[in-house]
Design brief:
By secondary structure, the chain is of the alpha+beta class. The protein is about 25% helix and about 20% strand. This is Type II secretion system protein H.
């Protein structure tokens, strides 16, 4: 005898109403979540670059003390020469004559400057060295700021002053991350001169 075959009376699946409710909830979650995620990613990118600058400055200072020579940190638009392009590449090099210029020759000689570190900057960031009169930062053989003055590296990404970040070089050669030091907090970080960092 053959077994009796029964056809399913109901197919499993979603009704149109269930599908519409699911899509509506998904759209609400995306509307709320995506801007927050975008801000989170932008903030992390900014913090990562500030930390990269702090690491570069600390490495330059340590090398200056270890080598007993001036070490210069500069911005480079082409990744090879110091030309103030802080938003492109940062270079740290042993500056044998202390002139703030990378001196190299082909073939290399014992008096050539040696690049110890190079850092690429994301194109979404605008980085500047403040005050604007400075074009390089130098550490002397004792690890102090060579010109005896402080400086601030300002980082902006187009979201305005409240999202600006900074790395501060003190005259002592120590490096710090900029914070809001105003007595009345305005959520804008301050540079080495205690002035609010302003984005272009």
């Amino acid at each position: 005898m053959f077994a009796e075959r029964r056809l399913p009376t109901q197919m499993a699946g979603f009704t149109l109403l269930e599908l519409m409710v699911t899509l509506t909830i998904a759209a609400i979650l995306l509307t709320v979540g995506v801007p927050g995620l975008t801000t989170f990613i932008a903030n992390n990118r900014m913090v990562g670059q500030v930390n990269s600058m702090v690491g570069l400055l600390n490495a330059a200072r340590v090398e200056a003390i270890a080598q007993r020579r001036t070490v210069t940190v500069c911005g480079s638009a082409d990744g090879m020469t110091c030309n103030g392009g802080w938003s492109a590449t940062w270079l740290a090099f042993i500056d044998r004559d202390g002139d703030g210029v990378i001196d190299v020759s082909v073939p290399a000689v014992a008096t050539d400057d040696v690049v110890i570190r190079s850092v690429q900057v994301p194109t979404t960031l605008n980085v500047a060295l403040l005050p604007n009169t400075k074009t390089t930062v130098q550490f002397n053989a004792q690890g102090f700021s060579a010109d005896g003055a402080g400086a601030t590296f300002r980082f902006c990404d187009g979201r305005g002053n409240t999202f600006a970040r900074g790395s501060i070089l003190l005259a002592s050669g120590r490096i710090a991350v900029a914070t809001d030091t105003n007595s009345t907090k305005d959520n804008i970080v301050n540079g080495h001169d205690n002035a609010n960092l302003a984005c272009p």
